[in-house]
Description:
CATH superfamily: Gcn5-related N-acetyltransferase (GNAT)
Number of domains: 1
CATH topology: Aminopeptidase
Number of strands: 5
Largest sheet: 5 strands, mixed
CATH architecture: 3-Layer(aba) Sandwich
Oligomer: single chain
Amino acid sequence: MNRAHLSIRAVREEDLDLVLAFIRELAEYEHLAHEVTATTQDLRAALFGPRPHAEAVLGSVDGEPCGFALYFHNFSTFLGKPGLYLEDLYVRPGARGRGLGSYMLAWLARLALERGCGRFEWAVLDWNEPALKVYRALGARAADEWTLHRVTGEALVRLAAKA
């Protein structure tokens, strides 16, 4: 595939409505639309505020934005190096199969290396076989020995109150 028609650029503030639309489409695909409470203001603060917490890029096919990736740095104490964590990667259904998702992953892998990261990781729902197939083909391996734990909402408030 000639990748000349695929491009990636950093999200700008004027793109936030589109990013939020992509987030909602991803949530719909994952059957989690009821969990989306993010607003463009939340994204503006997270991506462009005084202390940005994440970064995002748009992926385009023939100049048309068809997907996005949102990522941030974490840290590996074992490696003693930062890592790049991909929170979300989404490509609209009409653009799937054209290599954009794989191209975005490769672009992020290169960014991780440029930034001195020791690893690049993400989570995927266990039923998302199309994504799992792509990830395996790219050399990713599942870290099945780890179980993700999450504290949100009232449980987060209760836990914080114990400090």
